[in-house]
Amino acid sequence: MSIIDDALEANRNYAKNYDSKLGKPPAPKIAVVTCMDPRLSDLSAILGLPQADIDVIRTGGPAVTEDVLGELVVSTRVLGSREIMLLNHTGCGFTTFTDDELNTKLAASTGDRTPAPMRFFSYNDPEQNAREQIKMVRSHPWIAKEVPVRGFIFDVQTGLLSEVHAIPQQTAA
After folding, report:
1. How far is it, in rounded angstroms, from Cα 139 to Cα 21?
2. Which has more confidence, 1 or 56?
3. Which of 15, 31, 51, 104 sits CB 3.0–4.6 Å from 44 for a disulfide?
4. Statement: residue 172 has pLDDT above 90
């Protein structure tokens, strides 16, 4: 049996005791943009928040793309999230390659260069990545300025979060 078949079997068992109250429309309090890395899957425990309070937006890197920005607009303007947390982590796989390297490798291994150059949103430094994410979210005109946007790094060795502060923009003298 495949992993998907095993998952379908487990789902049938899960559905037997499913709480239909979980089917009501979401009303999150916070939007969390985080990596697709499975070590960040238990956000409720990591953040000490009820699962229903967290609108989770998962993306590799975690890259703040146009799609992610759209999801944040919906989360804050439609669903009611009042804060945005950008959650990076140590040991991210997206720091182990560059976009150019992966494009070259995939084109060579598949023999098909037509998708290249593909954007994978690789990066080197989680702190700098968080700062860039904050800047991107803050610059979107449809994300209200009164919505707090804060960046963090989850240490996969200790389980602790550390805040990354945006570098304040310098004003002209």
Report:
1. 37
2. 56
3. 51
4. no
End-to-end CA distance of the chain: 68
Which residues neighbour 72 within 8 Å (Cβ) at sequence distance 6 or greater? 31, 33, 57, 84, 137, 140, 143
- What percent of the chain is modeled with pLDDT above 70? 97
Residues 6+ apart with CB under 8 A from 43: 32, 34, 49, 51, 54, 56, 87
Per the listing, tokens 């998907």 go with 4
pLDDT of the residue at 30: 98
CB 166 within 8 Å of CB 99: no
Alpha-carbon Rg for the chain in angstroms: 19
Any idea which residue has 């240490």 for tokens? Answer: 155
Nearest 5 degrees, angle CA 45-CA 50-CA 53? Answer: 125
